[in-house]
Design brief:
With 257 residues, the protein is of the alpha+beta class. The chain has one domain: 2-Layer Sandwich (Ribosomal Protein S5, domain 2). 25% of the residues lie in helices and 35% in strands. The chain is built from 5 helices and 12 strands. Strand 7 and strand 8 form a beta hairpin. It is elongated and about 65 Å long. The termini are far apart.
Length: 257
């Protein structure tokens, strides 16, 4: 691993990558919607060898005390051992918690979901939206892949019918589009030496000095940020990362259906 990291860093010093991509190149991306009929909405993404499936499930519950007229959003990420030898069974790992929080923050802070439209009866009943992220194969850049797939799954989602008199949900009837207002997209930029790259592979992640994810809205405004890695970043470097993230997010957003 050390020798490989040194090799990757040596390439990075020349602006080169181990898979021959250019610094601003994504791996091949395949994005599908409606991949399962058991969810209200779903999507699967393949970003290089990284593969993730996202499902949207809905139910009726009680609102949070500080938002009695708003629906509830809950994002969870499952790191199955089949996705990577480094994933183990048991409670959510730190990486799984971080992934879920970054995706949650981007959707919540962008107000991509109109939570007020998910209120059934103020203070008593609201729709609860569960975004379940399943890592099928881990080969780097889980945040960007999961973020794009989550928005695609939301765009694919149809709301089930709620029968007020019987106080039950009819999952057989799903026709109303889910209220998605914006399309927040995360873009992760990694720093290796003095070079910056997008869409890091797992090999590159093991060699990086710093990682910075910026989630932007359709208009380019920032709605979430997340820093990783041990190296610090200068203000001018963050400005450079922001410009790159906004530009590349526009490319990813065009893939949404």
């Amino acid at each position: 691993m050390i020798m490989q990291s040194e090799y990757i860093m040596n390439l990075a010093s020349k602006g080169l990558r181990i898979d021959n991509r250019k610094p601003e190149d994504f791996r091949e991306i395949k994005l599908e919607k409606g991949v399962t009929g058991n969810a209200e909405g779903s999507a699967r993404i393949r970003m290089g060898k990284t593969e993730i499936m996202v499902g949207i499930k809905m139910g009726v519950g009680v609102p949070f005390p500080d938002s009695l007229d708003k629906g509830v959003l809950i994002v969870g990420a499952e790191f199955s051992p089949i996705a990577s030898p480094s994933f183990e069974k048991g409670p959510p790992r730190e990486e799984a918690i971080e992934l879920a929080r970054v995706i949650d923050r981007g959707i919540r802070e962008s107000k991509a979901i109109d939570l007020e439209n998910l209120c059934i009866k103020k203070g008593e009943k609201v729709w609860m939206v569960f975004i379940d992220i399943h890592i099928l194969n881990h080969d780097g850049n889980l945040i960007d892949a999961a973020g794009l797939a989550s928005i695609q799954a939301l765009l694919d989602a149809k709301m089930p019918e709620y029968i007020e008199k019987e106080e039950k949900v009819n999952y057989e009837k799903r026709t109303k589009p889910f209220p998605v207002k914006f399309k927040p997209v995360p873009v992760t930029v990694v720093k290796m030496g003095e070079s910056f790259f997008i869409d890091p592979s797992l090999e590159e992640e093991n060699a990086l000095g710093a990682r910075f994810t910026i989630t932007t809205m359709d208009n380019g405004n920032i709605c979430a940020m997340q820093k990783g890695g041990v190296e610090a970043l200068k203000i001018e470097e963050i400005d450079r990362i922001f410009d790159l993230a906004v530009r590349k997010a526009g490319e990813l957003r065009k893939l949404l259906k």
